Every structure is written in structure tokens, then in C-alpha cells.
Amino acid sequence: MASAEPIDNRLFVLILQHPQEKKEALATAAPTCALLSHARLVVGLSWPNLSRALGRPVDPRRWAVLYLGSVRPASLGDHREVLGLDRRGEPVADQEAMLRGLDGVVVLDGTWKEAKTLWWRNPWLLKLRRLVLNPRHKSRYARIRREPRREALSTLEAVALLLKHLDGGPEIEARLLRALDRLIAEARPSRQLEEGRVSI
User: Fold this and answer.
1) For the chain, what is the domain count?
2) Quick one: pLDDT at residue 187?
3) Structure pTM?
4) CA–CA distance from 115 to each of 15, 16, 66, 77 (Å)?
């Protein structure tokens, strides 16, 4: 699914994938990394720190993590699609400062339960800035794989939304979502067959 010309994203994307998710035929983490010039996918349950997970020294103060705590963005009364949170799970007063100067973002890849396992097994994630998504649209991916809540997106969609607001604008999101639409189109016939909705 790699594009002939990878997207030249500035903000580095590190995807931590739960080992069980690697076995999922409809996983989007690998295609996401294939589409981006600056991205890395690592599979496992825990790493001692961000630098070890990434494979090079970095300043964790300049990184954020896509947070998946109990907060529901729509309930915060803020309509921005990407929100920075403080340690109490409340939106920070100066959103621009929170989002400015980031070198990279960590995204946890897996089911809701698997992503929570990654969160709790890697306490160094607590040192990173916290971001949550507040998407205006339902997940396209929900057409082929069930999402647990409205704001839940596939990894590819989440990265597309993050990069739209933090790196380069809507053209990056559009390219990533076109790739997702192709993936969905390819997956739907076999998915329908598995669920008994297609006869041959």
C-alpha cells in the first residue's frame, strides 16, 4: 500500500503496536508507516523509555502521546479536533503552546483493551504531553471493523487527523484517507464473505 512518493511529514509518528494487533488482517499501522517518510512501527508490550522504543535519543518533553484515558472529548465542551490535556485530564488553557514545538507523537495501536495495556505497561508515557482527538465525523473504518466509541478511529485515521492539525494541513489528511478508502474497498468483499453476506 506504499505510495510511490511517501508523504514528507515533519512531525515524527511512532506507533507502538500490541503483538495481538499484528495478527489482525485489517490493521492499519503498517500501511500508515509505509505512507509516511518519518514514521516507525514497533511491536511489543513494553519499553524502558521513549528513546529505546524509537531507537534513537530524543527529548521526551518535545513529544506527545495520543491519550486514551476515560475522558470523552465531546464532553469537554471544546470543538477542536485535537486537544491538549493536563495531568488531570482537563484541556490546558493555552492550547497553542501545548501543541507548539512538538518533534513527534506516540500512537498506541490495538483494540481498546490492548491499547490500555500498552499505556499501563509503559509508565514513561506519563512524561509526554497528552493529546486527545475530537473527530467531527464517524470512523470510515467502522464499515469493516467495529469501533468501541464515537471518537475511536483507526490508527491511520488518527494519524491523519493529528497531522492535519499539527503538520502540513488537510492535504496530508486527504492523502492518508484516500489510502484508507482503498484499503476498505479491498477488504470489504472478503469481510462480507466471512460474515456470510456474500454468496458465491
Assistant:
1) 1
2) 74
3) 0.85
4) 11, 9, 11, 25
